[in-house]
Automatic annotation (TrEMBL), chain A:
Protein name stated in the entry: MIP18 family-like domain-containing protein
Keyword Oxidoreductase: no
Family of the protein in this entry: Belongs to the MIP18 family.
Species this protein is from: Vitis rotundifolia
GO biological process, one term: protein maturation
Transmembrane segments: none
TrEMBL record, chain B:
Protein name, UniProt field: MMS19 nucleotide excision repair protein
Keywords associated with the record: DNA damage, DNA repair, Nucleus, Repeat
The keyword Zinc is assigned to this record: no
Location relative to the cell: Nucleus
Domain MMS19 C-terminal: 686-1095
Biological source species: Vitis rotundifolia
Family as reported in the entry's similarity comment: Belongs to the MET18/MMS19 family.
GO CC terms: cytosolic [4Fe-4S] assembly targeting complex; nucleus
Amino acid sequence: MFYHIRDIKDPEHPYSLEELKVITEDAIEVDDKRSYVRVTFTPTVEHCSMATVIGLCLRVKLLRSLPSRYKVDIKVAPGTHATEAAVNKQLNDKERVAAALENPNLLDMVDECLAPSYG
Amino acid sequence: MAQLSQLTQYIESYVDSSRSSTQQAASVDAIAYLLKNDILTLETLVREMGMYLTTTDNIIRARGILLLAELLTRLASKPLDNVTIHSLISFFTDRLADWRALRGALLGCLALMKRKSNIGRVTDNDARAVAQAYLENVQVQSLGQHDRKLCFEILECLLDHYPESVASLGDDLVYGICGAIDGEKDPRCLMLTFHIVEILARLFPDPSGPLASFAGDLFDILGCYFPIHFTHPQGEDVDVKRDDLSRALMLAFSSTPLFEPFAIPLLLEKLSSSLPLAKVDSLKYLSNCLLKYGDDRMTKHVEAIWFSVKDAIFCSEQEPMLSLASELLDHVGFQENEIVTEAFILLQKVILENSGLSLSLIVGDKDINMIVNTVTSFRSYNDIPLQSKHKLCAIGRILYVSAKASITCCNRVFESFFFRLMDTLGLSVRNSSGDCLPNYDYVFSERLNFGALYLCSELLAACRDLVVGSEELKSKSVSAQESWCCMLHSFSCLLMKAFSSVLDASTDKDAYEADIYSGVKGLQILATFPGEFLPISKSIFENVLLTFISIIIEDFNKTLLWKLALKALKALSYNYIVVEKIVSLMFLDDFGLPFQLRLEAISDIGTTGLNVMLKIVQGLEDAIFANLSEVYVHGNLKSAKIAVQLLECYSNKLLPGIHGAGDFEDVLSRFAVNIWNQIENSMAFSVGAQENELLNATMTAMKLAVGSCSEGSQGKIIKKAYSVLSSCPSFTLKESMPITGTVQLEGLQHTQDLECFSCRDKWVISLFASAIIAVRPQTHIPNIRVVLHLFMTILLKGHVPAAQALGSMVNKLCPKSNGVEISSNCTLEDALDIIFNTSLWDSHNHGPLKRCSGIGVDNEMGLANLCLGAPNCQLLQVCAIEGLAWIGKGLLLRGHEKFKDITMIFLRCLLSSGGIDNLPLNHGSLENNQEQDVLPSVAKSAADAFHVLMSDSEICLNKKFHANIRPLYKQRFFSSVLPILVSSMAESRLSNTRSMLYRALAHVISDTPLIAVLSEAKKIIPILLDSLSVLSTYNLDKDILYSLLLVLSGILMDKNGQETVVENAHSIINCLIGLVGYPHMMVVRETAIQCLVAMSRLPHARIYPMRTQVLRSVQKALDDPKRAVRHEAVRCRQAWASIASRSLHF
């Protein structure tokens, strides 16, 4: 699982999320039987405006990488972001995610982050 | 003269700076051509150019002078008279003052000064004038890079070619050079400046000369470059490497002892820097300077250098213990990095240059002594703290290097450390006067001290290398006088015992690995002293060997120890003891040592040297024969197993080694002949359950042995084999038979398998076939016609080796056109005649295979016809097809026309299953009904025959067995067969036939080199896709399917296939989607998905319509049971999803 998202690039830096320690292996919870995944990520700074974009990247990447039977929850690690609740709500709202993905600018940004850095 | 008239034009076009550079170059070429061929003299040219050279227009003057200089450069090998040269050089010297037109002047001076003396060169006086003008007028550092380079080249040239004339300039010259090179930054120029300094130093070696006063200044300029470090690595395409520059600077540093007061402190200072590069460079420079500056100047630095070196060695952040495991016994236990390596090189040089001082430093060094004391207080390797382990290794190396330097050094080191170590180990006793004597009563009961033992082995290694490297030490007289030799002599025996006791005490646990390493290594070192060296006696050598062997025989449970001992043995040069012991291993009956290990030991030892190999091979053969005879006579199962292993060892390990070693033909041919003898002598034959395996192993060994013999011995073997064959009652071989005759095989019942043969017969015929397979083309085969007949009949019983032998025979026989009958009395044509026109089957008589000559064609059937339909007997048909395939392969390899007929036969077999009655046989329609059920298997074997035809076989018909192989035969076959297959596919309607055709096609395509397939890509791809989808319905065909898929992926990846792929993108993708879920083979799924990824790189417009389909099908693969497939699926979805990210949801 970690393998899938470690290579995602940060929207503001040329580093991967793994290198920035935004996501770690421990922060991912997988329950194969119930087809449930929960990813908890840690934004680099408390006011990181890109938290939602990072979350969106994670969601899109997992959407593409996992069989459709999985339900994915993405959360900001508690106490690491100023507007934690708002971000969480935004990320796990199906409608809002779908709407965000209709936005071409946002989608281009997401795609840039997901561009494969491996061979 | 026409060209001459254009001269002005040429000059114009060069001088005119608005012309393109190619035009300018062309005009220079044209003028140079005129000058070279004496159409134009230099004098005329100069006169013609007069205005351009002297005009007050700066740009035109510069171009004019440059033109003249360029021309002179081109004329470097044209003889010129002295007057011309004098006037030209005076002109250019003059112009050096003209800074606006400097480049031409520089280039001109350079061109003239580089000339060789035999074609007219600049005189010394002129050269001095150039130098003076240069020093007065040229401000090097204010010029551009290119001009600076020219300036330096002139300097270099002056110093190189006119040393006397410039030397007289003295201080001015040195001063001028200092000014010129100061602050230079361009790597190309730096290469020159460093070289200039080097030559300059050679020019003024005198310690009171002009250089002496400037040495400080000059070194200030040089010193700031050290260590060489590029700040702009990706700058212009500079072709100067850091290493080159560093070496040039090193030469400049060490060019004169005058630099010593400045250089050594700088280097020592940089050595303590934290930059690894600086350290390595300083060590290198120090080594170099040490030699150049000389002993007098360096003595005062020895101490400082020693401390720095010691620091470098101790501080290198290495984990020494690892080296023990990784490097095994190859080299001293230190995993080196560059710093350490250089440090030891330097240390060695210091010791060589100044042995007295440096050795007393080493011997008296506090650290070393302290570490020796502390480390030796730990008993086992694992008790030593990491830090000390590290230091222990370092000291080991230091002692090694210092003892190895010379005999006197060795004496010093031994005197100060050897007895101490012996005391620690408890191997010595002191007598009343305090002398150290070996303690022969020592009982090796407890664990010996690891550190001391390790240091001992390092010291021993140093002695050995010292002895090996020097001739005089080997002589008795010298060695007896040296104190270290005496010490070694008195203790060598005890040391040997000590090392072996370590091994005895060891168990195969990690904790003692290091002990085992050092023990084995110590023994190995003791055994590798040269034989004539006295202190280590011969008996010690033999004892060491015995120790190793006893380990190999008994201690097979201690894997590590066993492996190491074997490796050590391999590295030694052994005598007869080892070999005999090893050979006797094969006959030992108790199964203490596992047989695999025995064989490993045997083959490892066997491949080390020629003499050894001979003995080992001999022993192995004896063992093989002993076991085989057990098998033959008693049917002993255990011996059969052993024999199989022995034979495999023989053919896989030893035979390849023999090939490399050369002249072993006798051995090989004797082996083959002996196998035949043995079979001949054992009439009663009872091979039990392991029969097939044993037979295969024997056949392989036979083939390989025969294959590597020369014609003569092959002939002998074949003759022997033939005599055994003809003595078999089952095979009646009549020598005088008409060409159209057949073999009369009486008593042979026609049954469909080989059961009717006695076991012995089967062995005989199989081995005979393998011998035939392996012979060279020129080898004489007796009674070749009879043999052909024999093989033909055997082949029909499903005996594949017989078919392969036939294939090899038709491959190697010489055709008629050759004229001279070389060795066989049967040409290729004859053989083919026999093969295809002999009646093998009498359709009227289903009894014994018997043929009455003269009966009409109607009831006889040759091989070809048998393939097309044997009445009532599909098994026979299958056998015939298989046999024909091998014969066809033999013909195909040599490029014979006949293979086309054979291919057509297979094709007809394929098609006949469709019920199209094109069989040219006169059998009744009764059989047709039966054929319908039967034919699928016939068709299948016909399809597989294409695989036999196309694939490379390990068993026969390859280079090893001297097959006659034409280059590109596969391509040729491919291009001739493809159209036929394709067209017949279009005609056939029945699904069965089609699937068989696809199968045949799949074989052909997947065995053809990819390049050939690519050239036909347009035609192939549709068929390829069809066959993929047809084949994917059967799970039995997964291997063919996979190889076909690989061909497809090859086409996808190749540039040349791209166009066709784009055209067929839709069908390819559809086909791949079908394979994504292929249940029978994981790699098929993986490759299919990889192909889809490759497809996503095609033009978007073309593949976009397929996007959702691909994504949907790959989604299933995300849940694949295999991780590799899931991974590829993710990659694939990512690739396809991102070609149009707008619609993420699908």
